[in-house]
C-alpha cells in the first residue's frame, strides 16, 4: 500500500498534478463553444434560473433541455421569477467585442461563461413553473427577502446577488478597496461553518460524521448560490484543510491551496477568468504565504500587516481592471473589515431568521453605505496607473513572492517600488505620440497625446427620446492609458454629440484649459462655462489664426464665426514629423470653400471627416484638394441619420476609410515618420 500521507504531502507530486491539471485547462479552453440555440428562431422557451435587475431593464437567464444557459434582456421590468417556465419572442444577438481600448469585453465575458449569444425580448409569457427543488427554494428565498426592508443586503450576503444594491454604493465600496467583503467567500463561509458547527454539534469536537453533515449543508448552499466561483474556492480550501486535520495528513495551507487550484482546473476551468475568483484566490494564496510573519506580530500589528499584504497582493488585479488604487484602503480595511465581520454580516443574516431585526439591519446597512460613500470622497491618495502589461504582472508577483520568502528583501523592495514607479510614470518614461478616435457612438471624441501632454477634441454624448445620454467611457479610457490630466479640452462646437460628456469629465479629471469656438454660445456651452468658473478652470475662445502645441504636435486654427453652429466649428490643421492632418468638427461645405480660398492646404496624412460623413460636408472639390491618405469617420452604428452618406464615401474612395461603427476606436501611432494603425473592431 502506498503511503498516501507522504505522497500527497510531496511538493513534487503536487507539481505533477498541477501540470496535468494545467494541460486539461488548456484543452478545455481551446474547445469551441457548442451553439445549440438556433439563432434564426424568433421564439425561445426555458426555465428561469436567474433574474437580475439592471438600469436598463431585466437580465434573465434560462435553461432548456441540456442547452447552454441563455441570457434574455428585457427592456421593462416584468413579474418574472426564478423557476418560471417562460416563452419569449424576440431576436438573437451576437455581442461584439469592446470597441474602446481597455474597455469591458462582453463577448469575452460570455465566452468564459460558455455562452455565445443573447436574446433581446420583445414579448414574454409565463407558461408554467418548474418543480426543481433548488429553484423552488431559491424562488421562495427571493420572495421572502424581497419583502424585507434590508432586501439588498440579504440578497448580497445570502445569495451573492448584488443587483439590488445601489450602483453608487457599489462604486464606493470599490473605491475604498472593500468590495471583497461583499462577495461570498472566506468571511461568509467561516461564519457559516462556525454557525452550523455550533448549532449542529455545540461543543463536540470535529469528527468525520460532523464533517460529512457539514458537507451536505455547504454543497446544498453552493447549489442555491449557483456555485459562485469565489465561494467554490473557499469551500474547496476548507475541504482540504479539514481533510488534512481529520486524517492527519499534515498538509500546509499552501499545499491545500494548490490542491484546490488543481480541482478547479479540472472541474470548473473557466472559473479562472472570473474577476471575483482571481481576487479571492490571489488574496488567499499570499495570506497563506505571509502567515509565518503574521504569527510573530501583536494582534493590532498583525491586522495592519494583514491589511497591507492584502492591499499589495491585490494591487496588480485592481490596476488591471480599474486602473487606480486608493492608498487609504489599507486604513479603511482596518476599520471596516471588523465592523462588517463582527456586526453588519451577522445582523443581516440573523434578520432573515428573526424579521423583527430587519429594521436594525436596514439602519446599519444604510449607515455603512453613508460612511463608505463619505470615505470614498477622500481621493487625495488615489493613484492612477497605466494599465499593467501581462509581463509586468508576472514580474510583480514574482517579486512579492520572493519578498515573503525573505530573499534579499532590500533588493526585492527596491525592485517592486521600481515596477510601480515605471507603471505610474509610463507616459513620461516611454514617450509616445498618437491620435485615438474614440468610438462614442453617434458623436465625436478624439484623443491626441504626445510626450506626456494630452488634448481631447470633443467628448461625445448624445440625445435620445428621454433626454441626454451620458456614457462614462472617457474617464476609464484615459486612466487606462495612464492619463491623469488634460492639458487642453477643445470643444469644437456646442452640439450635445460633441460636448455631452464634458460635465462628467470636468468633475472627474483635472483639466488645465478649455477652448470654445467663436460665435454665440449654446445652452450646453453656457452650462459648461458655469462649471468651469465654479472649478476655477481657465477657458477661452479659439480664434482663426491661433497656434498652439501638444508635445510634438503643432496646431493651427482655420475657422471662424459663420453664424451657424456647425459652420462655426473649430477646424484644426495639425502637423507632426512633416505629416499634416485636418480635424473638421461639423464644419459644412460653406466653411470648406472659405478655407480653401484663404489657405493653401497640403496633402494630408489623415482627415477627421466633417459632420460624421453627412452630405452637408466633405465636398468632392475639397477632398480632391487635400487628398487625404486616410479618412476617419466617427459615426454611430445603425444611426437614424443615415451617416455616412454614400456620396461622401464615393468622394473619399481614393483614401483608406476608417469608421468607428465598423472599426471601433482607431489609433494612429506616429514615431520617426512611421505610422502604425490599430483598431478595436467589434
Which short descriptors sum up this protein?
OB fold (Dihydrolipoamide Acetyltransferase, E2P), eight-stranded mixed β-sheet, 682 residues, 4 domains, alpha/beta, seven-stranded mixed β-sheet, 26 strands, 26 helices
Gist of the model:
Helices cover 45% and strands 19% of the residues. The radius of gyration is 29 Å and the shape is globular.
Structure, described:
37% of the residues are buried. The protein is α/β, with parallel strands linked by helices. Helix 9 (229-246) crosses helix 10 (253-267) and helix 13 packs across helix 14 (329-353). The longest helix has 25 residues, at 329-353. The strands form six sheets. An eight-stranded mixed beta sheet has the order 17-16-14-10-9-8-25-26, with helices on one face. It has a seven-stranded mixed beta sheet with strand order 18-19-20-21-22-23-24. The protein has a five-stranded mixed barrel with strand order 1-2-3-5-4. Strand 25 and strand 26 (674-679) form a beta hairpin. It starts with a helix and ends with a strand. Helices cover 45% and strands 19% of the residues. It has four domains: 43-131, Nucleic acid-binding proteins (OB fold (Dihydrolipoamide Acetyltransferase, E2P)); 156-384, no CATH class; 391-422; 429-679, Ribonuclease Z/Hydroxyacylglutathione hydrolase-like (Metallo-beta-lactamase, Chain A), CATH 3.60.15.10. Residues 465-470 have low confidence and may be disordered.
Amino acid at each position: 500500500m502506498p503511503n498516501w500521507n507522504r505522497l500527497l504531502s510531496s511538493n513534487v507530486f503536487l507539481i505533477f498534478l498541477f501540470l496535468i491539471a494545467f494541460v486539461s485547462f488548456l484543452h478545455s479552453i481551446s474547445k469551441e463553444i457548442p451553439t445549440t440555440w438556433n439563432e434564426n428562431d424568433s421564439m425561445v422557451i426555458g426555465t428561469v434560473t436567474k433574474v437580475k435587475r439592471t438600469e436598463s431593464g431585466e437580465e434573465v437567464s434560462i435553461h432548456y433541455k441540456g442547452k447552454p444557459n441563455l441570457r434574455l434582456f428585457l427592456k421593462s421590468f416584468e413579474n418574472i421569477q426564478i423557476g418560471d417556465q417562460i416563452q419569449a419572442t424576440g431576436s438573437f444577438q451576437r455581442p461584439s467585442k469592446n470597441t474602446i481600448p481597455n474597455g469591458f469585453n462582453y463577448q469575452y465575458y460570455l465566452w468564459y461563461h460558455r455562452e455565445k449569444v443573447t436574446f433581446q425580448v420583445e414579448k414574454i409569457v409565463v407558461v408554467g413553473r418548474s418543480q426543481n427543488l433548488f429553484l423552488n427554494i431559491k424562488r421562495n428565498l427571493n420572495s421572502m427577502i424581497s419583502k424585507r426592508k434590508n432586501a439588498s443586503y440579504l440578497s448580497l450576503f445570502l445569495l451573492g446577488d448584488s443587483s439590488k444594491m445601489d450602483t453608487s454604493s457599489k462604486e464606493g465600496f470599490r473605491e475604498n478597496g472593500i468590495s471583497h467583503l461583499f462577495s461570498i467567500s472566506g468571511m461568509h463561509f467561516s461564519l457559516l461553518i462556525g454557525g452550523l458547527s455550533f448549532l449542529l454539534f455545540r461543543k463536540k469536537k470535529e469528527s468525520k460524521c460532523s464533517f460529512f453533515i457539514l458537507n451536505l449543508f455547504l454543497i446544498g448552499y453552493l447549489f442555491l448560490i449557483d456555485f459562485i466561483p469565489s465561494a467554490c474556492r473557499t469551500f474547496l480550501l476548507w475541504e482540504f484543510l479539514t481533510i488534512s486535520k481529520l486524517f492527519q495528513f499534515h498538509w500546509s495551507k499552501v499545499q491545500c491551496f494548490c490542491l484546490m487550484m488543481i480541482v478547479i482546473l479540472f472541474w470548473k476551468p473557466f472559473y479562472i477568468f472570473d474577476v471575483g475568483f482571481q481576487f479571492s484566490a490571489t488574496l488567499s494564496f499570499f495570506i497563506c504565504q505571509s502567515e509565518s510573519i503574521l504569527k510573530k506580530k501583536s494582534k493590532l500589528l498583525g491586522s495592519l500587516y494583514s491589511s497591507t499584504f492584502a492591499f499589495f497582493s491585490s494591487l496588480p488585479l485592481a490596476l488591471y481592471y480599474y486602473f487606480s488604487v486608493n492608498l487609504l484602503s489599507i486604513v479603511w480595511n482596518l476599520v471596516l473589515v471588523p465592523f462588517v465581520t463582527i456586526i453588519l454580516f451577522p445582523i443581516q443574516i440573523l434578520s432573515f431568521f428573526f424579521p423583527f431585526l430587519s429594521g436594525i439591519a436596514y439602519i446599519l446597512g444604510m449607515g455603512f453605505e453613508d460612511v463608505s460613500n463619505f470615505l470614498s470622497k477622500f481621493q487625495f491618495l488615489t493613484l492612477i496607473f497605466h494599465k499593467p502589461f501581462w509581463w509586468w504582472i508576472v514580474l510583480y508577483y514574482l517579486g512579492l513572492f520572493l519578498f515573503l520568502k525573505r530573499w534579499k528583501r532590500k533588493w526585492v523592495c527596491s525592485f517592486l517600488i521600481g515596477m510601480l514607479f515605471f507603471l505610474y510614470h509610463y507616459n513620461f518614461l516611454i514617450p509616445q505620440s498618437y491620435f485615438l478616435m474614440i468610438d462614442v457612438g453617434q458623436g465625436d471624441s478624439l484623443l491626441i497625446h504626445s510626450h506626456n501632454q494630452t488634448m481631447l477634441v470633443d467628448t461625445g454624448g448624445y440625445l435620445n427620446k428621454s433626454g441626454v445620454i451620458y456614457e462614462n467611457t472617457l474617464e476609464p479610457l484615459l486612466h487606462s492609458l495612464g492619463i491623469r490630466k488634460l492639458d487642453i479640452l477643445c470643444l469644437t462646437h456646442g452640439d450635445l454629440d460633441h460636448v455631452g460628456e464634458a460635465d462628467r469629465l470636468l468633475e472627474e479629471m483635472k483639466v488645465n484649459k478649455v477652448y470654445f469656438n467663436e460665435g454665440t454660445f449654446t445652452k450646453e456651452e453656457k452650462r459648461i462655462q458655469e462649471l468651469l468658473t465654479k472649478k476655477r478652470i481657465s477657458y477661452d475662445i479659439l480664434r482663426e489664426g491661433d497656434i498652439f502645441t501638444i508635445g510634438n504636435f503643432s496646431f493651427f486654427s482655420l475657422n471662424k464665426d459663420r453664424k451657424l453652429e456647425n459652420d462655426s466649428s473649430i477646424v484644426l490643421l495639425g502637423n507632426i514629423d512633416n505629416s499634416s492632418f485636418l480635424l473638421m468638427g461639423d464644419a459644412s461645405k460653406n466653411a470648406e470653400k472659405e478655407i480653401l480660398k484663404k489657405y493653401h492646404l497640403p496633402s494630408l496624412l489623415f482627415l477627421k471627416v466633417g459632420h460624421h460623413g453627412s452630405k452637408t460636408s466633405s465636398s468632392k472639390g475639397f477632398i480632391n484638394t487635400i487628398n487625404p491618405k486616410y479618412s476617419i469617420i466617427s459615426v454611430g452604428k445603425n444611426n437614424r441619420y443615415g451617416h455616412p452618406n454614400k456620396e461622401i464615401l464615393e468622394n473619399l474612395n481614393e483614401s483608406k476609410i476608417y469608421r468607428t461603427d465598423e472599426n471601433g476606436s482607431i489609433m494612429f501611432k506616429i514615431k520617426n515618420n512611421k505610422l502604425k494603425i490599430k483598431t478595436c473592431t467589434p
